[in-house]
Each structure stands twice: as structure tokens, then as C-alpha cells.
Amino acid sequence: MEFELDEEQRLLRRTVREAIAKVRGRPEAQQWDTYLRLGWLEAPPLELALILEELGYAADPTPFLATATWFAPLTGRLPTGSGTAVFDGAGRYVLDADRADEVAVLTTGGVVVVPGARLAAERVPALDPHLHLAHVDAGHADGAGDLVAEVPDLALLGLAATCVGACRRILDLVLDHVKQREQFGRPLGSFQAVKHKAADMHVAIERARALTHFCALTIAEDDPRRADAAHMAKAAAGECQRLVFRHGLQLFGAMGFTWENELQYYLKRAQACDLLLGSAAVHRKALLVP
Amino acid sequence: MKLTDDPEVEEFRAEFSDFLDAHLPAEAEARERAGSSAHVPEWARRWQRTLFDAGWLLPGQPPEFGGRGATLPQQLAHLEELARRRIYHSFNPQGLGIIAASLITFGTEEQKRRWAVPILRAEITAALGMSEPEAGSDLASLRTRAVPAPDGFVVDGQKIWTSGAHDADVLLTFVRTDPDAPRHRGISALLIPTDTEGVERRPFGSIAAEDDLDFNEVFLTGVRVPRENLVGPLNEGWRVANGSLGHERTLLWLSYAERLEDLLRDSRDTGADQDWYATLRMDLTALRLLGYRQLGEDRDPAEISVLKLLGSEAVQSASLHALEAHGAEGLSHPVRTGPYRHMHHEHFISSWFERYARSFAGTIAGGTSEIQRNIIAERILGLPR
Ligand SMILES: Cc1cc2nc3c(=O)[nH]c(=O)nc-3n(C[C@H](O)[C@H](O)[C@H](O)COP(=O)(O)OP(=O)(O)OC[C@H]3O[C@@H](n4cnc5c(N)ncnc54)[C@H](O)[C@@H]3O)c2cc1C
């Protein structure tokens, strides 16, 4: 197998980075339009993972993740605007349910698509201020049974890739900080206790990222390992997030504990990616034992 | 990026597999393993020569050095095929992977003919004399001195942890040739035949088994070394040392992946918990993927540190879990309860403590985990020294 990004994929990553940088800070609707115009919603799995990693890196506020990786794989099509999906009968903590144009509801009888406006969705205040989470009354939906088993692989991939992106951003912020901040007459980054934490963050990110790319490949090629690979990717991203959160916040000192520091958005985004659709512990349990 | 295997690599793998089917000696099939170079069975020497002659020893090398000019992915397939069958193709891994490989890169034609080829053909054995009592992680602080003599050097000093030195015919030794130069600049690489007067080797046991004598102290007193044994230019031994370790490291991750694979395979019926399998499988898969990534074009040598750190530490924690899963049974050790027998592969496999204890070799030898973290932080993440 080949495990390096090819020229086209590297080029895509660069273009995605540039496009996101250009629309950053603009109104959400404009960002969303840009993504649609660039055809990102239609990207195949590996390309989608690369896009989502960059969106995670930028703490993207749009409903891209839910639309591309929740709604689309369940319904087999893209929504007319934005979309999301309800995986459990109760409709709790549904990403973007308060603003989606269409909602795919997973029921024992199959997938039902409902216009977003028809569902009474109540936004749940979440720790991550940019995250849209809502409880919806899915009405006739009678629940899908085993949550983890029913969730499409692509939805797990989406959260994992977003999480990896947020973790990369945290590490970059930490690196910038420890190169500049001086104590004891030296930059913090010259202290080995700091270096070793940074190195461990890097390794955890590389591990999670490799498993995320593997998961994307198995989905793209409809390989029989795809479900297993999705559990690995989601679990590894959750574990990575945990280490990166702890070391990342710690290495900023008190400054990392403030609202003003943008670090918080990435920490919270990464944590949310772990908690949605089953945390690392849940997906570790779902992994096959050889 | 793609999951499908490269047909050229698979063809190569199949060819090697056919070769193994046709030529593998029964002893190797029975996994009669030469655990330490102190106890090299005759069949193991013959087997290495068979591989050399057929171009299957170091496939990346040209035919005169036991290879066939194989690409890196093909070399990986070759090692994977050996691992899948649990075959150890050499009893002298340092000699093969580090010393002969360095001589091929840095040696003179005469050094290649006189030392590299015989090492590869298992006619002689070589050991690596880098570490010293006062120079471990800080290798550049080595003190063993070589002073110029009429037609060469006179060497005085001490080496330690020299794996397999007691059984070796030659040592690739790193010595200080210019005491006034900055630390990295005054080092040279010398080949020292172990039968030279003044070379004394004292083997000692490792944590694994008292009679698994692989470690050596090597004392060098007034050792006369001819000028033609200098490897690479004078005072440029640091380049040779880094090149040597580079050889060792390129596919090093695979040996960790193999050990993880073995632990997975051998622990299936131990009742170990699902949570442990989950970690093992994620570590193993990630290690392989990141290793495959190193086969591509835009690889960064510092990335090897990521693989070494991830792999060696994963093996260590997986071995600990396997040991724990066996409870008190994990304490028994076949070699320790009877008269000495050399480490048969079955002994290694059946002692969970042995496997755990040996896992520390990975986090210490060839640069400790702490040193790998420093490399990652400084060379990949750009933190100040
Ligand atoms: C199985 C095995 C086989 C070996 N075979 C050979 C061989 O054939 N030839 C040979 O030359 N050598 C060999 N070695 C030696 C090996 O290269 C050294 O053990 C290794 O480089 C570490 O040096 P040291 O043991 O002196 O430890 P030290 O350098 O004394 O280190 C002790 C501890 O301090 C830590 N430490 C040291 N420096 C730093 C730092 N800057 N920052 C943070 N922590 C630090 C280390 O990580 C380690 O935890 C072998 C070792 C083993 C275990």
C-alpha cells in the first residue's frame, strides 16, 4: 500500500488552507457559500478528511461537518442547503439540528428525511460557544438501537479528522507560545520537560492522523476493514485529544485558563469531537479482537 | 495514497516466498533461533550464505553485496516475509545492518572486499564499538584515543555494551583522533580486528538471562591499528556514525511492528482484556502506516524518531500487559530452571517475563526514548536547544 499524500492531495490541502484563511472572520453564510462553491461537500473520503482537518484547525463555525458526514452518508445525497442527522430516537445533542435545512432521522424502519423547520429543535448551550448542538423531538422516530453500530463510518471519520485538525492547532499555538515566553532567562521551549510534552503531543497527533487517513482509504475503496478502521480512527482521535488538551493547557500556564486566549476554542472543539457519537472508550470496546 | 498493493512489490514478495519454500533449512523452519551471536549454530552461517548468494540477504544492495538493487518498498516486503514466518535471517544484525552497510557507503574498495563481503557471507562477525562508560547518550563525548603512529594509530580506551563483541572478529570502533577539535569534529572510525594484541573482551549477562552473554566490555590498551583500517576521512567519524545509525533506523520500525504482531498473536488465548487489544491494534496499525509513509519521497530523517519512540514504547507497554495477563505464571522461565541451553525461540516465546524485560532494549539502545523526544522537539517542532 502507499501511504503518502500524492501531489494532487497535497495541492488540495494547500488550496483548502488558503481558502479558509481568506474567508476567516467573515459572516458564516459567506464561508459556507465559499465551501459550496469549491465543491468541498462532494469531496471523496480522503479529500474530505483533509478538508475537515483544515476546518478543525480553523474551528470552522459552519454546518459543514454535519452536512458532509452525517446527512450525506445516511441519505446518499446532499441536502438542498445544510443538513444533519439524528442517530438516536430521542434526538439528543444533534450537531446543527437547530439550523439545518434538512434532517435525516435514522429509525428502525430506515432513514426518514424531514425539513429542519418541521422539527422542534432547541439549541443546547454547549461549552464550545461556536458549536451548534440541539435536542430535537424526532416525533415518529422510534430509535435506531445500537448507536455505535448504526452510525455511518463517514460520520466517525468526520469527527476524527476535525479533532486531529483542532489538536494540530493546539500544538501550533503551544509551540508559538513556548518559543516566545521566557522564564528563568530562557524561552520555555528550551526546557526539556516542555519539549518532551510537545514531542508526545506530536506523536499522538501523528498516530491519530495516520489512522484517520487509513479509515478514509478503507471507506473510499469500500474495504471490508472500514468499520473497524472507523472505530480505530475515532478512538485514537479521542485519546490524542485527551493528551493534547492536558499538555496544551498546562504549557500555557494561567494564560491558557483565560477566555481571551483562542486556545479554548480548539480545546473545546477537540473535546466535543471525542464526546459526540461515542468517546474513545466506547469505540475501543467496539474494536474487533483478533 | 492507496490501499492496494503495488504489483511490482507483490511480485517481488512472491519470488522471495518461493525461494524460502525451496531453500529454508529445517532448523530455521523449526524456529531454532540464534538468540545471541555467542552461540551461532553452523546451519545459521550456511543459511546466511545461501541468502547472500541468491541476492536475498540485503536486497537493497547490488549483487556483489548480497542484494539485487531492490527498492525500499521491496526491502520492506522482504523483511515482512521473514517476519511473517518468524525467520531470523542473520545472527549478526549489527554486522549486517550497520557495519557492512556503513562500509559499503564509506569504505574503500579494499575494505569492502576484505571486511564487508566476509561479514555478509557469515565468514566473519562484526560488532559496533560506539558507547563508552562516560559516553552513552552523549556519544560525542567519547574518550577512546587513537594517536598517530608510523603507519597507523595506537588506540587506548574502553568501550561498553558492545553487543556480540566476544564472538566478533572485528569491531567498528569510534575513537578520538583530534583531542583539540570541537567534540564532533575530532572523531574517526576504525576497524579493529579483535585478535590484535591489546584488545580484551569481557562478556557479561543482561537482565534477560544471566547466561545470555551478549553485552561486552572491551578494553583497548596500546592497540596498533594500520592506517588502511580508517573508515572514511580522518576526523569525520561522526558522519560515519550517523550514517551507520541511519542504516539501522530506516526499517527499524518494522521490528517493533513484528513484536507487536507477535504479542497480539501469542496473547489471543490469555484472557487479556479487550481494552488492551484495542491499544495494541491501534499502535500496531498506526506504526505500520507511519512506517509506510517513510517509504515515500518526501521523508524527513527526524521522522524516524517518531517511529522509534512510538514503536519501542508500544512494545514495552504491550509486553507489560501480556505479562500481567498471565499473573504468577508469567514468572516462570524455561532457561532459568535447567542446565544452560541457548535461547531457543520457543523459550523466548514462552517466557512473558523475558519478553517484557527485553522490551527495554528498544527504549534504550540506539538512542533512548528521551533522546528521541529531544530530536522530535528540536528538529521537527523547531524548539530551541
Ligand atoms: C540491548 C542493547 C544493546 C546495545 N548494543 C550496543 C552496541 O552493540 N554497541 C554500542 O556501542 N552500544 C550499544 N548499546 C548502548 C546504547 O547505545 C546506549 O545504552 C544508549 O545510547 C544509552 O546510553 P547509556 O546506556 O549510557 O545511558 P545514559 O546516556 O547514561 O542515560 C541514562 C538515562 O538518562 C537519560 N538521558 C541521558 N541523556 C539525556 C538527555 N540529554 N536528556 C534527557 N534524558 C537523558 C537517558 O534517556 C536514560 O534514561 C546497547 C544498549 C542496549 C540496551
Q: How many individual helices of chain B?
A: 14
**Ligands present:** flavin-adenine dinucleotide
Q: Mean pLDDT score of chain B, rounded?
A: 89
Oligomer description: heterodimer
Strand order of the largest sheet of chain B: 1-4-5-8
- Mean pLDDT score of chain A, rounded? 93
General description of the model:
The complex is a heterodimer of chains A (290) and B (385). Chain A is built from 10 helices and 8 strands. In chain A, helix 6 runs parallel beside helix 8 and helix 6 runs antiparallel to helix 9. In chain A, 51% of the residues are buried. Chain A has 290 residues and is mainly α. The radius of gyration of chain A is 19 Å and the shape is globular. The mean pLDDT of chain A is 93. In chain A, the strands form 3 sheets. A 3-stranded mixed beta sheet of chain A has the order 1-3-4, with helices on one face. In chain A, strands 2-6-5 form a 3-stranded antiparallel beta sheet, with no helix packed on it. Chain A has a two-stranded antiparallel ribbon with strand order 7-8. Chain B contains 14 helices and 8 strands. In chain B, the strands form 2 sheets. In chain B, strands 1-4-5-8 form a 4-stranded mixed beta sheet. A 4-stranded antiparallel beta sheet of chain B has the order 2-3-7-6, with no helix packed on it. The radius of gyration of chain B is 21 Å and the shape is globular. Chain B starts with 6 loop residues before the first helix and ends in a 5-residue tail after the last helix. Chains A and B meet through helix 6, strand 8, helix 7 and helix 8 of A and helix 9, helix 10 and helix 14 of B. The complex binds flavin-adenine dinucleotide. Flavin-adenine dinucleotide binds next to strand 1, helix 13 and helix 14 of chain B.
